[in-house]
Write a structure and sequence with these properties.
This protein is an alpha/beta fold and about 150 residues long. The chain has two helices and eight strands. Helix 1 runs parallel beside helix 2 (about 100-115). The mean pLDDT is about 95.
Length: about 150
C-alpha cells in the first residue's frame, strides 16, 4: 500500500466536471494498492496517517496531528502510484492491484479513517477519471508505504 500525503488548506476532486468530494484544512491522500495488501496494511496506514504530527504548533514546528487541528481527509484512489518506469518510456502497472482486489481495500481504508477522524472524510470515485485540485500547505508532501 502506498499513499502520497499532501497537507492542504483545501482540496477537491471532480468527475465529469462535478465535485464529488471536497475538504478544507487537512490531508489529500493519493492511495494505491499492490498484490499482497490486506486488512493489516489498511489499518496500519490509517493509524499512521491520523497520528502524523505535520501541522504547525504555536512556534511553527510540525508538532500537531490531524485531530489536534480538526482536519479533514480527502482520499483519492490512484493505481498509477505503482507505475514502473525503470524500463522504456511507457509505465508498466503490473504491480498495481487489480480493481477486484483494490476496490474493497480502498473502501476499507476510507472506513478505517472515518473511525479515527472526527473531521470529514471525503472520497473521489474509484476507477473514474478524476480532476483533483488542491492548495498544498507548506508545501508538505510525504510518501508513506507499508
Amino acid at each position: 500500500m502506498r499513499v502520497v500525503l499532501q497537507r492542504v488548506s483545501r482540496a477537491q476532486v471532480g468527475v465529469d466536471g462535478i465535485v464529488v468530494g471536497a475538504i478544507g484544512r487537512g490531508f489529500l491522500l493519493l492511495t494505491g494498492f499492490t498484490a499482497g495488501d490486506g486488512h493489516e496494511h489498511v489499518e496500519w496506514m490509517a493509524d499512521k496517517v491520523v497520528g502524523l504530527r505535520v501541522f504547525p504548533d504555536d512556534e511553527g514546528k510540525m508538532n500537531r496531528s490531524l485531530e489536534e487541528v480538526g482536519g479533514d481527509v480527502l482520499v483519492v484512489s490512484q493505481f498509477t502510484l505503482y507505475g514502473d518506469v525503470r524500463r522504456g518510456r511507457r509505465p508498466s502497472f503490473v504491480d498495481a492491484a487489480h480493481p477486484d482486489a483494490a476496490t474493497p481495500l480502498y473502501r476499507s481504508f476510507v472506513e478505517a479513517l472515518r473511525r479515527r477522524v472526527s473531521g470529514a472524510v471525503e472520497t473521489g470515485e474509484f476507477g473514474a477519471t478524476m480532476e483533483v485540485e488542491l492548495v498544498n500547505d507548506g508545501p508538505v508532501t510525504l510518501v508513506l508505504e507499508r
